Amino acid sequence: MSIQAGYDDWAATYDLDRNLTRDLDQVVTRRTLAHRRCQSILEIGCGTGKNTPLLADIGEKILAFDFSQAMINRAKEKLPLDHVTFAVADLTCSWPCDDQSVNLVVCNLVLEHIDDLSFIFAEAFRAFDGGRGLLHL
Questions:
Q1: What is the CATH number of the domain that holds 85?
Q2: What is this structure's pTM?
Q3: Per-residue pLDDT tens digits for 117-137
Q4: Cα angle at 64 between 101 and 4, to 5 degrees?
């Protein structure tokens, strides 16, 4: 089974399953970012939207993407917010965002699935407005 198919299958129970790594990640992300304010945030590998509510609180415009359509569907159900856009995207291909368009790039529990991290960091750098932002990978 591919990683994508596994996450598609897992989407229905992802938020309910006991997962200490996921839960600790959420705590650490909240502590790290809770007091930031951003105009535009890019969340790569958003899954079912575990960290997206925090990002929606601190950001004016959120673009959250994941390669699993089922995960995106769950995130959309949970977070029908006008300033949050969810999209299906493959992180190993060019990302659907403009150059220097975001103040914060967030990526949690995703990089362990990526073979070529140099491409991920290059895309994050391309999307990132380095004069006003933070990379949280």
A1: 3.40.50.150
A2: 0.87
A3: 999 999 999 999 876 555 555
A4: 130
Hey, how many other C-beta atoms are within 10 angstroms of the C-beta on 20? Answer: 7
Instruction: Please report where in the chains the tokens 């995207």 appear, as a residue.
Output: 89
Q: What mean pLDDT do residues 43-59 have?
A: 96
At 3-24, the pLDDT tens digits run 788 787 878 887 888 989 989 9
Three-state SS string over 21-48 comes to HHHHHHHHHHHHHCCCCEEEEEEECCCC
Report the number of distinct structural domains present in the chain. Answer: 1
CB 78 within 8 A of CB 49: yes
Q: What span, in angstroms and rounded, lies between the C-alpha atoms of 9 and 19? A: 16
Cα radius of gyration rounded to whole Å, the chain: 14
Residue among 85, 136, 134, 86 nearest 111 (CA):
136
